[in-house]
Write a structure and sequence with these properties.
This protein has helices at 3-25, 30-33, 44-67, 78-88, 93-116, 135-149, 161-172, 175-178, 182-192. It has 208 residues and is mainly α.
Length: 208
């Protein structure tokens, strides 16, 4: 799949993912917003604040690409990301959800503008390990994975079939680099060929 087509498909799926996300948190109250999520050390508010700042980060990169300027996701690096999430998670649920809604709406607008423009400067790296043209794909995965991480009743069984079909190919492509050592590679090849089983300790390194 060529980069421009990949960006366009991921962007379209992002719009649906964002709508699902906002519907899922529409009735959230303060108690639920500050309960533990499925991510160690993070509350629901941490996850939602991360999703808002992540939307801002992708919007920043894509807006830069539209203007012909190669910019990073976070102007002041990873430290800015950590501090913004820690501070934002302490807010009231109305503030957290309004912030998320605003950030998502801005990203949706820039995704549409980028698609209309044909995804210019998709190769801009912004100090990252992927080009601006891959921002929609990374954002799409963030939303669907973190909706599960919220721990509010949304599970992988609710992922849209179109998203699963699209991201299965992408995630399978990451498997070789996530296998930890020759033993894991051998075990997986044997399983794929119907010549063995995956042991209880078999695991892939995180894709994040």
């Amino acid at each position: 799949m060529d980069l421009e087509k990949n960006s366009a498909i991921a962007a379209r799926l992002c719009l649906d993912a964002h709508a699902r996300l906002m519907d899922h948190v529409a009735l959230l109250d303060d108690t639920a917003a500050h309960q533990d999520s499925k991510l160690p050390g993070w509350s629901v508010g941490h996850v939602l604040t991360h999703l808002a700042r992540n939307a801002d980060a992708h919007a920043r990169r894509l807006d830069g690409a539209l203007r012909g300027v190669d910019v990073p996701k976070y102007a002041n690096g990873p430290g800015q990301r950590r501090q913004e999430i820690a501070d934002g998670a302490q807010r009231s649920v109305s503030e957290i959800v309004h912030d998320l809604e605003t950030s998502v709406a801005q990203l949706d607008k820039i995704l549409q503008q980028s698609d209309d423009a044909g995804w210019p400067n998709s190769d801009f790296m912004g100090g990252s390990h992927y080009g601006a043209g891959a921002c929609p794909a990374h954002r799409l995965r963030e939303v669907h994975m973190h909706m599960v991480d919220l721990g509010l009743g949304y599970t992988s069984s609710q992922w849209p079939d179109e998203y699963v079909s699209w991201d299965l190919e992408n995630l399978l492509a990451t498997v070789p680099e996530r296998l930890n050592g020759a033993g894991a590679r051998r075990e997986l090849v044997a399983w794929l060929a119907g010549r063995g089983t995956l042991g209880q300790d078999f695991a892939l390194d995180s894709w994040g």
